[in-house]
Design a protein that fits this description.
Layout: H1 10-31, H2 44-65, H3 76-96, H4 104-128, H5 135-157, H6 163-186, H7 192-208, H8 215-229
Helix pairs in contact: 1-2, 1-7, 2-7, 3-4, 3-8, 4-5, 5-6, 6-7, 7-8
């Protein structure tokens, strides 16, 4: 079952809702902190941010459960540009941003980021040539996002305030799952609703935590998710195909 109305703007709605959450979060840290820079207990803006997040998640999940699907296709060159931008964002991040955990985890984070960036660049060139993406670049993005969570787990879990890392954790979790379902689709194991739902969540959370320290990486992920949602998947001629 599909919704009778056009849902081509659903990803953009998730992105705009994430921008609204970002504005509330920034206002929260501007007006509801004490002399130590920590959030005061129970600020009204904190409840607003929580309520907004819950309402957006309910709205997105309701649309996905009801069979919503995006109904717009990006031109090949636009898809190529968005994917190559994501590749550049990952490459710059792993080259100039220090990992948070020393040792093999940090090394794996950097290597997987480089590999994913190369895969995204190849995928972008493929889009420009009119070819559909393979599963390997998607899998590399999945592994990179997973190791991003692993690398950041200790500082995130040791943070005295959950708000500082909760949106970032949700963003990377959604990106890990979305890229996994993209890879599954590439090998003939489509999970349409999970693919769309995790993509919409990734757009919301990446936009909501845009100013939390990984601006370029989050922008790159937003561009890539939009490309994947607005281009046909394996065996389809358009996003609205059954």
């Amino acid at each position: 079952m599909k919704l009778s109305r056009n849902t081509k703007f659903l990803p953009l709605a998730a992105l705009l809702a994430g921008a609204a959450a970002l504005a509330v979060r920034e206002a929260l840290y501007a007006f509801a902190v004490d002399d130590r820079g920590l959030l005061v207990p129970g600020p009204p803006l904190g409840w607003v941010l929580g309520a907004l997040t819950v309402l957006v998640m309910v709205y997105l999940i309701w649309n996905v459960v009801k069979g919503a699907d995006v109904t717009f296709r990006l031109p090949d060159m636009a898809a190529a540009a968005g994917t190559i931008f994501c590749a550049a964002a990952m490459a710059v991040t792993v080259a100039f941003v220090s990992p948070m955990t020393p040792g093999y985890t940090a090394l794996a984070w950097r290597l997987l980021g480089c590999a994913a960036a190369v895969g995204m660049a190849v995928q972008g060139v493929g889009y420009g040539a009119g070819r559909k993406p393979g599963f390997v670049p998607d899998l590399l993005v999945c592994l990179f996002c997973l190791f991003h969570i692993i690398d950041h787990y200790r500082p995130w879990s040791g943070n005295p305030q959950m708000m500082d890392s909760l949106l970032a954790l949700a963003a990377m979790g959604a990106m890990t799952l979305f890229s996994l379902y993209c890879a599954c689709d590439g090998v003939g194991l489509p999970r349409r609703r999970l693919w769309l739902g995790t993509g919409l969540c990734a757009l919301f959370f990446c936009a909501a935590e845009l100013l939390s320290g990984y601006l370029l990486l989050d922008l790159g992920f937003i561009a890539w998710v939009l490309v994947r949602l607005y281009t046909p998947r394996k065996g389809e001629t358009g996003n609205g195909a059954a």
